[in-house]
Design brief:
The complex is a heterodimer of chains A (293) and B (232). In chain A, strand 1 (134-137) and strand 2 form a beta hairpin. Chain A has 293 residues and is mostly helical. Chain A is 73% helix and 3% strand. Chain A contains ten helices and two strands; from the N terminus they run H-H-H-H-E-E-H-H-H-H-H-H. Chain A is globular and about 60 Å long. The mean pLDDT of chain A is 91. In chain A, helix 1 (2-32) runs antiparallel to helix 9 (243-263) and helix 2 runs parallel beside helix 4. Chain B has one domain: Rossmann fold (3-Layer(aba) Sandwich). In chain B, the strands form two sheets. A six-stranded mixed beta sheet of chain B has the order 6-7-8-3-9-10, with helices on both faces. Chain B has a four-stranded antiparallel beta sheet with strand order 2-1-4-5, covered by helices on one side. In chain B, a hairpin with a 2-residue loop joins strand 4 (56-61) and strand 5 (64-65). The longest helix of chain B is centred in the last third of the chain and has 15 residues, at 162-176. Classes of the chains: A mainly alpha (293), B alpha/beta (232).
């Protein structure tokens, strides 16, 4: 029972990290039809910014410096995403092949620049001491960082859903995911919504990058690529354009991955691909998909 | 000034030359009906006016060239659009659909709810669960909320039950009294009731411009629109 609980909570924690990567991808594709292969670089930029804050600006790690690192990582990644949208994507709407090529290129360039600057080796992300502790639930000893991932992802999920539900820009985004040309036909400059979504998506990925650095025991220029693949899987399973769908799919994949890795000895990735194939065959729009570009 | 002048409008979609030099004029404070058989380019013309289909040529609204303008700027100039097939936002509520369309500081909900009182009782209902007629009411209401200088309406009674056709037609007749309107409509009874001008298109061009009295002529209707007396 203790093992089951440990795997379950670790799986939910992993799912929380997947959600942070996937939520922005989902909204960006849902609203703009942009398959953003540079999304992994948002995550990496967030992680390196967080590392800089935690080592250079506030060298003694505390809870507050870690929170500052997460916020700075999120803002840096959000601003980079916004810059990329304004300078690159803005000129390539409805040119899907060009978008794919350019975003792949941006991802490669960011990885190469960071590798040239910081080197390719992973760097340990300093955390407050309590991060290394564990709590006992029943007979299970659960590392405390899992709860941090779950808590941060929950806060961002609630914030995103609140923006979408209670603000005018959220209303425009929800409508734009369904039919962006009709949003324009109501006199609304949908490009403003595009920029907002890029910033929100970049912010979530940046915060995710900081947390993933802790989960993966290091920050490296290549970290974005491997997590991006899981981000895309979550988006496809959850449904393009649906934040709630991304949250459900992230949990499903995170938990399944962990249980399969333990009970089927390392077959976690294989089982995730089986889930992906099953969803594509039975419900191609995803669990809560809203768009069909 | 709320007149609309279309000159030598061409639209090509996926290699098909749909509009081949369309010319017409929509006078101020009058209702102009754009008629023709299916597939002659009526909806494409309206979409080109709204900037939803890129076209070449000239479209002047109140003397201002709008042919290369982004859609949202064209709408902000005062063109209200009711698209074919409604295109309401199915996952949003009726209230959200309407509030999304608000542009004026004081949107005219009194007019909307007086024309379509049914919407007032369904503000919290998801628009995707409304009947076709109710969805059409939402689509028209979005255009009526603001003080538009011209309404561009595409087949507002398409696919509606006869009772709802009457309700929508009555609402349009009320609005037509004091608006400039360009309407695509297959229901000739409605066209006769509200239009002061008719334009007939065929194969991507305008082939007739005149008054609605021509629709009384059976031979004219059959030759121009391919129907016997229209859907009266």
């Amino acid at each position: 029972m203790s093992t089951f609980l440990l795997i379950l909570i670790t799986g939910v924690g992993l799912g929380a990290l997947y959600f942070l990567v996937a939520s922005g991808l989902s909204l960006i594709y849902g609203l703009m039809g942009v398959l953003n292969f540079a999304h992994g670089s948002f995550l990496t930029i967030g992680a390196f910014t967080g590392l800089w804050i935690s080592t250079k600006v506030f060298p003694n790690p505390t809870t507050w410096t870690f929170i500052a690192a997460m916020i700075a990582g999120g803002i840096a990644a959000g601003l980079f995403a916004l810059l990329m949208e304004q300078l690159v994507i803005n000129r390539l709407y409805n040119r899907h092949i060009d978008q794919a090529l350019v975003t792949v290129g941006v991802g490669l360039v960011v990885t190469a620049l960071l590798a040239g600057w910081f080197g390719s080796d992973a760097r340990l992300f300093p955390t407050p001491l309590w991060f290394m502790k564990a709590v006992t639930i029943g007979e299970a000893i659960i590392p405390i960082d899992r709860f941090v991932y779950i808590g941060v992802a929950t806060i961002l999920l609630i914030a995103m859903l609140s923006i979408l539900k209670f603000t005018r820009i959220g209303l425009i985004i929800r409508a734009g995911v369904e039919n962006r040309s009709m949003v324009s036909a109501l006199g609304i400059n949908v490009r403003l919504a595009f920029s907002t979504v890029f910033f929100i998506g970049g912010f979530a990925a940046g915060v995710g990058g900081v947390l993933i650095s802790v989960f993966s025991y290091g920050v490296s220029p290549q970290m974005g690529g491997s997590w991006l693949i899981y981000g895309f899987i979550v988006v496809v399973v959850g449904g393009m354009g649906s934040i709630s769908g991304s949250a459900i799919a992230a949990m499903l994949i995170g938990v399944t991955n962990q249980f399969a890795n333990y009970y089927l000895t390392g077959l976690g990735d294989f089982v995730v691909v089986i889930i992906l194939a099953a969803v594509l065959l039975t419900k191609p729009s995803g669990l809560l998909g809203k768009v069909n570009h | 000034m709320s007149s609309l002048e279309v000159k030598d409008l061409h639209v090509t979609i996926n290699g098909s030359h749909i509009l081949q030099g369309v010319n017409f004029f929509v006078p101020e404070n009058k209702v102009t009906a754009l008629l023709g058989r299916n597939g002659v380019g009526k909806s494409t013309t309206l979409k080109a006016i709204m900037g939803l289909n890129p076209g070449t040529g000239s479209i002047k609204f109140g003397g201002t060239e709008i042919v290369a303008m982004p859609t949202h700027k064209i709408v902000q100039m005062g063109l209200g659009y009711v698209p074919e097939d409604r295109e309401i936002f199915a996952s949003l509520t009726v209230k959200e659909n309407l509030s999304l369309a608000e542009r004026d500081a004081e949107p005219n909900y009194d007019l909307v709810y007086s024309l379509f009182p049914e919407l007032l009782t369904r503000t919290s209902q998801r628009a995707g669960t409304l009947s076709g007629g109710q969805q059409q009411m939402v689509a028209i209401a979005r255009a009526l909320l603001n003080q538009n200088k011209i309404l561009v309406i595409d087949e507002p009674t398409k696919g509606l039950a006869p009772k709802l056709v009457t309700e929508v037609a009555n609402a349009l007749a009320h609005v037509a009294d004091h608006s400039t309107m360009l309407i695509v409509e297959q229901n000739l009874a409605l066209v006769k009731a509200i239009a002061q001008n008719i334009i007939v298109m065929d194969q991507g061009k305008v082939v007739f411009e005149g008054g609605p009295e021509n629709l009384q002529d059976e031979a004219f209707v059959k030759s121009m629109l391919g129907v016997s007396g229209g859907h009266k």
